[in-house]
Design goal:
Distance between the termini: 51 Å
Largest sheet: 10 strands, antiparallel
Shape: globular
Radius of gyration: 24 Å
CATH architecture of the largest domain: Alpha/alpha barrel
Number of domains: 2
Strand content: 15-25%
CATH superfamily of the largest domain: Chondroitin AC/alginate lyase
CATH topology of the largest domain: Glycosyltransferase
Length: 560
């Protein structure tokens, strides 16, 4: 099946799922709500507003003659009901909630404004004057909220790009200069914050997966507001991103600041006609998504269904214009070396393998065989389980992590850092809801709590008395990893393992299934705790042999 046809089938299936998430009962108090957990299962106590973004892909397919949903009254009813529900759940100050009641979230408002305005535009001839007035009032209030507030719990580039795009859409809809000015300020801020290496910060680090969403929003802005500065920034962004397309068609992973491996195709497809790297990325990633080798709209959860479905649906008509690129991606070349020192990401490749090392994440290592084009090692680092059940890991993001980086060798020493382990409990939920109903109705107080939560769930904790010195040697036909684990204080441990992919932080958008990874799992490397306790040090060597024709495609580890 042709790539566009296979992707189209995924979009159609995901749209059916979106329709199934909505309360289609016109007599229900929650008619039009896309949060099935709330209106059907009644497992949560408020509706997440960002799910209402599903009105846009549904409206897009309603207008698409090639879609089975084209002109269907049920789809139009779903879009109108979804828009009406948005107007009922907006706070008086124009904001919406995502994570908890009365959150008044900048990010949720930023992500929701443009989809409701664009969806309303697509079905405008079917809206009543009352519906238009309600949507216009909702849109204006949301835009005013974005103009008067900032996101304060971290610099998250894709949120700011989403806000800028929403304000551009609002400026076009309402002819309001204030919205245009606010959008320009956000774009200028992002241009200033872009690293010379081409990446934008996602919680003070580079995350290729989320950068594709940032590129999606900024490329849409560039279409409506052409700018040489923005065009150059997007070119730099794509030059950076191309290095994280893997030989098996996957993208990103444990080495990113947010550990994501999602791809939003629309931005790459928009840039493809004028950017050879974007066209090459679009070719490879769209094909992988069509095969099911890469997570797409048919496989992500409800939290990412709306943006993934929207981006994929927007990309479909652009794929033909993108054309068949003759440009090669770095993972398709025989000899590559790339060092993004500020991001803490380093790539090495030969005719036999392609490897990405995440120095900033404690020396994570992801290796692919050149032939067959297959994952052979996805090493997120080590995890130590202590006697009290707490865990510590080498996978802690430090963008300024010292390392010796040479063409054939990377060496670094990192501490084990306590992993965040906070989970919801009845008691914590009661306390959070009491705060939501009282102090956190204040946006300032809510932002303070969110900053604390981000620190708790995203950042590593205290160091423990355990260190890893990792030396990675890149040969012509193999990669060898020598790990030296030291326990100077003879820390009591229950277990110490490594050599597998994992995320040391809370990140809901990480860890999606990719079909390309079937059959690539390998056993964990288990450290000899008795020897570590007795001698205070253990050395382990993992050799990844990737010579074509070898039957052993899994790494081997030896403990010394």
């Amino acid at each position: 099946m042709h790539t566009a046809d296979a992707l189209g089938a995924q979009v159609e299936a995901a749209a059916a799922r979106a329709l199934g998430e909505q309360d289609a009962n016109p007599h229900s108090a929650t008619a039009g709500c896309f949060d099935r957990r709330y209106w059907a299962w009644k497992l949560v106590d408020f509706p997440e507003a960002t799910f209402q973004r599903l009105v846009l892909p549904l409206a897009t397919l309603y207008r698409d003659p090639a879609s089975r949903y084209h002109g269907q009254p049920e789809v139009l009813a779903a879009v109108r009901a979804g828009l009406a529900y948005v107007t009922r759940i907006q706070h008086g100050n124009g904001s919406f909630d995502q994570a908890f009641p009365f959150e008044q979230s900048y990010g949720a408002t930023a992500f929701l404004l443009s989809p409701i305005l664009e969806a309303a535009r697509l079905v405008d001839e079917h809206l009543t004057p009352a519906e238009r007035a309600a949507i216009e009032g909702t849109g204006r209030r949301a835009a005013e909220f974005l103009c008067g507030h900032e996101e304060r719990h971290g610099v998250i580039a894709n949120h700011l790009a989403g806000a800028a795009w929403s304000l551009v859409v609002a400026a076009d809809r309402f002819r309001e200069p204030r919205y245009e000015e606010a959008a320009s300020r956000l774009v200028a801020f992002l241009l200033e914050r872009q690293s010379p290496e081409g990446w934008w910060p996602e919680y003070d680090g580079a995350d290729p997966g989320y950068q594709t969403l940032c590129v999606d929003y900024l490329s849409a802005i560039a279409e409506r507001r052409p700018s040489e500065a923005l065009a150059r920034a997007l070119d730099r962004a794509v030059e950076f991103l191309q290095w994280f397309v893997h030989p098996d068609g996957t993208f990103g992973g444990v080495y990113g600041s947010r550990r994501t491996s999602l791809v939003y195709l629309a931005g790459l497809a928009r840039l493809a006609p004028r950017s050879a790297p974007a066209a090459a990325m679009c070719r490879a990633l769209a094909a992988a998504m069509a095969r099911g080798d890469l997570a797409g709209p048919a496989s992500v959860d409800a939290g990412n269904l709306a943006p993934m479905l929207t981006s994929t649906a927007m990309a479909l008509p652009l794929l033909a214009a993108a054309g068949a690129s003759d440009a090669s991606l770095p993972c398709e070349r025989t000899e590559v070396v790339a060092d993004f020192t500020s991001a803490g990401l380093h790539i090495r490749g030969t005719a036999h393998y392609y490897a990405v090392c995440g120095v900033a994440n404690g020396g994570t290592l992801t290796v692919f065989a050149g032939e067959p084009r297959r994952l052979v090692l996805d090493d997120g680092g080590y995890v130590a389980e202590m006697e009290d059940g707490a865990r510590a890991s080498t996978q802690a993001t430090r963008r300024e992590q010292p390392a010796t980086v040479e063409q054939e060798r990377i060496e670094l020493t990192v501490p084990f850092v306590r992993m965040p382990s906070a989970l919801p409990t009845p008691g914590r939920f009661v306390a959070l809801r009491l705060l939501n109903l009282t102090l956190m109705r204040s946006i300032a107080a809510g932002n303070w709590v969110k900053r604390r939560l981000v620190g708790l769930l995203m950042a590593g904790g205290d160091e423990v008395a355990l260190t890893l010195t990792r030396r990675i040697t890149f040969g012509a036909e193999a990669v060898e990893v020598t790990d030296r684990i030291e326990s100077p204080g003879n820390l009591a441990l229950r277990a110490l393992t490594g050599g597998q992919p994992f995320s040391s932080i809370h990140m809901a958008s990480a860890g999606y299934f990719h079909g390309a990874r079937l059959g690539t799992a390998r056993p964990a490397t288990v450290v000899d705790l008795e020897r570590l306790s007795r001698e205070g040090v253990v050395e382990l060597t993992t050799r990844v042999d990737v010579v074509p024709g070898t039957e052993n495609r899994s790494p081997t580890a030896d403990s010394r």
